[in-house]
Amino acid sequence: MHADFAADWERLGKLAFRRQEKTGALFKRVSRLLETGARHPDINYLNIIRQWLLVPFTLWPIDFAGLGSHVCGCVKSRKRLQRTLAFVLDQLRELPSDKTQAAIAEYERLVERGNYEPFLRVPAKYGAQERELLMNPDLKQEWLTLKKMFAVERYRNRNGVIRRSMVQERNFRPAWEAKPKTPRERFQMAFDAFCFRWNLYGMECDKPLLLKLSVNPTPHGLMIVIPCYWSFDPKRDLDWPKINNLHRTRGALRQGPKMSGGRVERHDQARRALAAAHEARELRLRGAERFTFIAARIGLRPGAEPRTIRRLITEGRTLARRRVVSK
Predict the structure, then answer these.
(1) Within this chain, do residues 20 and 90 fall inside the same structural domain, yes or no?
(2) How many domains in the chain?
(3) Could you report the per-residue pLDDT of 105-128, keeping only the tens digit for each?
(4) Does the reported pTM lie above 0.70?
(5) Nearest-angstrom CA–CA distance, 259 and 295
(6) Is there a single domain that holds both residue 31 and residue 101?
(7) 232 belongs to a structural domain
(8) Same-domain status, 139 and 70
(9) What is the pLDDT of residues 55-99, one digit of tens each?
(10) Long-range contacts for 226-232 (Cβ within 8 Å, ≥24 apart)?
C-alpha cells in the first residue's frame, strides 16, 4: 500500500457525502497499483487521480471516480493511457490549495447535516413562505394527483427524498430533449413541472421542500441562487463577510484598474528576475556580482537591495509553479 495510506484513508473518511463508502474501493485499488505498477510509463497519472480522490467532491471539475477506474485498467493491463486523457490529467496536476480544500470540506459537512444556510442572515423569509406552502390545499391536491399517476416511492432515495432535475449555468443541460419513453422519464418531467409551479427543489415523502436562497461553491467559483419568490435584500439577506472569506480561499487577489496594472508589471518583473537568476547560475556568478547582474537584467537601479531581488525571484518561482496568467 501507499506509504501514507492510513492517514489518507482516515482523511477520506472525514469527507462529507459518504466519500469513503463511495470511492473507498477505488482509492484502495489506486493505492495498490501505485506500488505494483511502479514501472508503468503513465503511473504518475494514477498518482494525480489518487490526490484528487482526497479532494472535497464540490471541487471536482470532472468525474475522477470514472476516470480513475479507466486509468487503473490501463495500468493493470500495461496499456498506455490515451493522449487525450493524458492531456486532461496534465491540466489537473495542480490541486486546490489546502486552505480551499479545508473551507469547502467544512461547507460540505454543514450541508450534510442539513444546514443549507451557512451564509444566510434572514431565515425568517424562508420560514414564512414554507408555512404558507405546507398549508396550501392546491399543492396537496396536485401532489395526490401525481401519486395516483406514478408509483412515486420508486423514485425516492434512501432518505425518502425525490429531487427535481438540477439547474445548470444558463439553463444548458445534458439530455435536455424530451424523450418520455419510460415511466421514469415521464415521472421526472411531471415532477419537474410540479416543482417549477411551487418553487420546490423536491419532496421528502409528502413534505414539499421549498427552494432556498443559497450560495453554492462549484469547481469554477460561487453560484448564488435567489428563488423567484424571494424579495431579495442584498445587505440583510446574505452574510457577505463569510461569502468573501470562502471566495478568497480560492486564490482571488484584490483587483481594480490601478492595482491590476501594477500587479501585471510586478509579475512580469518577477518572471524576468527568475529568468535572470537562472542565467546568472549558468554563468556561475555569485554574491554581489550575481545581484548586480540580475538588477541590470530587469531594469532595477544600480545598488538595489539584495533582499528586493530575492523577493522578486521567490515570487517568480511561485508564479511559475502556479502557472499564473495575469489579466
Answers:
(1) yes
(2) 3
(3) 999 999 888 787 889 887 778 888
(4) yes
(5) 24
(6) yes
(7) yes
(8) no
(9) 999 999 999 999 999 999 999 999 999 999 999 999 999 899 899
(10) 227/199, 228/199, 229/129, 229/199, 230/125, 231/125
